[in-house]
Amino acid sequence: MAEQKIMLGNEAIARGAYEAGVKVSAAYPGTPSTEISENLVQYKEIYCEWSPNEKVAAEVAIGASISGVRSMASMKHVGLNVASDPLYTISYGGINGGLVMVVADDPGLYSSQNEQDTRCVARAAIVPVLEPSDSQEAKDFVKFAYELSEQYDTPVIVRTTTRLAHSQGVVTLEERKEADDKPYERNPGKFVMMPVNAKKRHIYVEERMKRMAEDSCDFSINKAEYNDTSTGFITSGIPYQYVKEACPDASVLKLGMVHPLPEKLIREFASKVDKLYIFEELEPVIEEQVRAWGIDCIGKETFTLQGEYSANLLRTAVLGEKIETTPAKDLPARPPILCPGCPHRSVFSVLNKLNIHAAGDIGCYTLGAVAPLNVVDTTICMGASISTLHGMEKAKGKDYIKNWVAVIGDSTFMHTGVNSLMNMVYNQGTGTVMILDNSTTGMTGHQDHAATGKTLMGEVVPAIDIVQLCRSMGIRNVVEVNAFDLPELERVIKEETQKDEVSVIITKSPCVLLKSNRFPDKCIPVSDKCKKCGACLKPGCPALTKNEDGTISIDETMCNACGLCMQLCKFGAIEKVSK
Amino acid sequence: MTKNIMIVGVGGQGTLLTSRILGGITRKAGYDVKLSEVHGMAQRGGSVVTFVRYGDRVAEPIVEEGQADVLIAFERLEAMRYAHFLKKDGAMVINDQRIDPITVVTGAAQYPDGIVEKLGESHRIYTVDAMGLAKELGNAKVFNIIVLGIAAQHMDFSKEDWLEVIEKTVPPKTVEINKKAFLAGYERGN
């Protein structure tokens, strides 16, 4: 019997790529897509890399495809925005070796800055989209995506969501089938997208999608399950599972390909059911097309545009059931927080003390926006901290940003922050940029990048020196500070923010969760010296709690002895001892 | 028949290891199984939930309100937050530990009193000071396996199967202490 294994959706996607004979994979980490690369790298037949951003990753995969091998780029939904430039044009060019981009959407915003729907991007870029609904399909659809890619000369997007990417299910494993390298032949008409060529390719692309739409009526991944025909659902992905859970007797048209749509199949299904529901998370992509064909259906007037769906949503909205549960009221929220010993907390405690605003960026340090740190004022997208600060200065003048800094992590700086810093220098900005260098991509679970000196495949390589990189742009004020040296940090921030030229402050301290980090010490309170002033509690370290008498306790299992609370105590009432 | 298990707690408490053991045992028994987890930013000390569903054929990967047969709570406040996911006759195993959320640390909110008593009025609950027991065993980190041991009394797998799956799932160096922890909970829950 074939081997079966419980696999995370992302693990199954990696397995699918392996079985399909993929040889090259490139990605930038982003929840919920990161584990695809982390699993792919375990297959020695596949070259895998972390690229500095998704645009670069997509282009690496495109290059591999043009050279004739099957390749993959994976990213989260907002990563596709960064990679959309190559996507829109490689849609015209098409492929040589099969090219698949896996894009993970995040309905419910578990770990993202927006709830955008990748199907809308794919429709605009004229690229087909497959959408699996469990781990087994995740593997199977990836393999099918490579067949489609090569058969129709197109990049293919496999769209997942957080619920699929981070759910585990049973998967039947198969052997890898090596895909022979396609011979490379120079073909500027296909791969040099200057106007004269692109005009011709646009005609091809529209014809391709029309042909795919027609053929997809016979794809086995689009299937009608006829049952009780009084109610019918058109659905795809994880929402399909909710339909099967709540309405197991209803008829279902399950779409494995959600762009382009199989018109004949949909018309046939619609004609056979009395009441037709379109059940899709986020945007009404299927619904709008179905309505455009003049087919009557129920969609977003009943089902929300926001968040994740559920079987209970169907039970209430379609079956009219009441879900009678009583959630406890007014419980204290438990939002995510910076870890005990996190160097970002130390930096934010100083910025907070100095009443400095931060234009923020994407990473754990976004948590500097919430109480009790309250330092980060803006978070838009990767790399935006530096450029938004520059925009403020150009709008309001250089004195206006004397109490502002841009705050960005090392990985995000390498992603797109570096472009913004170049712009600040070139256009004579005077902003202060703080690069919080914790030697890793922290929030997604510790991935390496060009400045860490290690690759995804584990090779030790020369690290790009962030200090030298900044200096090479002509920035004279590049200062390195230990993130936990509060007096020095305060002095440097005060000094650099007042200068009428660009400054870069690099705070160096590795992420506390890095496995290489060792914590031989712990901090302990000395209660007879404690004046109960609460200064140590201000930065909101979760290892500290206030006792009923006003003194404090420190949870020794959580404390990493960063010494921040110790430095904030003016009375010597916290000491560092060995564990 | 589909059985629904939930594991709730605070990011970093080891819910993922517990769910891996649950995944292993359900497969060993030949069931179809789906698990759903939280990765990424929410793991940083936030409230986390893991769903485990097993049966002949499992469709959705999540457990919804009013559907859980067993709710395993690694922290008191989180037990209360998710109590309404439990079926009327479901069982709740609570590690009687308090971890203050940041909203309590900063004084913006108060940690509720009498959680265990309140939950006991409307639910079938089993409480344990698993952290204390784990320290007695010599490793505070295995507290979650003690809690799992108690919850195991509300699922239909044999003790031997549990121990075998634990042996296969946990890091080799920690097999003995984890087995001990499981048995400590299992025998207590009996």
Q: What is the structural class of chain A? A: alpha/beta
* Rg from alpha-carbon coordinates of chain B: 16 Å
What would CATH call the class of the largest domain in chain A?
Alpha Beta
Radius of gyration of chain A over all CA atoms, rounded:
27 Å
Question: What features would you describe in this structure?
Answer:
The complex is a heterodimer of chains A (579) and B (190). With 579 residues, chain A is an alpha/beta fold. Helices cover 35% and strands 19% of the residues of chain A. Chain A has a 7-stranded mixed β-sheet. In chain A, strands 15-14-16-17-19-18 form a 6-stranded parallel β-sheet, sandwiched between helices. The mean pLDDT of chain B is 93. Chain B has a 6-stranded mixed β-sheet with strand order 2-3-1-4-5-6, with helices on both faces. Chain B has a single domain (2-189), classed as Pyruvate-ferredoxin oxidoreductase, PFOR, domain III (Pyruvate-ferredoxin Oxidoreductase, domain 3, 3-Layer(aba) Sandwich), CATH 3.40.920. Chain B is an alpha/beta fold and 190 residues long. The longest helix of chain B is centred in the C-terminal third of the chain and has 15 residues, at 175-189. Chains A and B meet through strand 1, strand 8, helix 10 and strand 21 of A and helix 1, strand 2, helix 2 and helix 3 of B.
Task: Give a quick rundown of the structure.
The complex is a heterodimer of chains A (579) and B (190). Chain A has 579 residues and is of the alpha/beta class.
Supply database-style keywords.
heterodimer; A: 579 residues; alpha/beta; Rossmann fold; 4 domains; 7-stranded mixed beta sheet; 6-stranded parallel beta sheet; 23 strands; B: 190 residues; Pyruvate-ferredoxin Oxidoreductase, domain 3; 6-stranded mixed beta sheet; 8 helices; globular
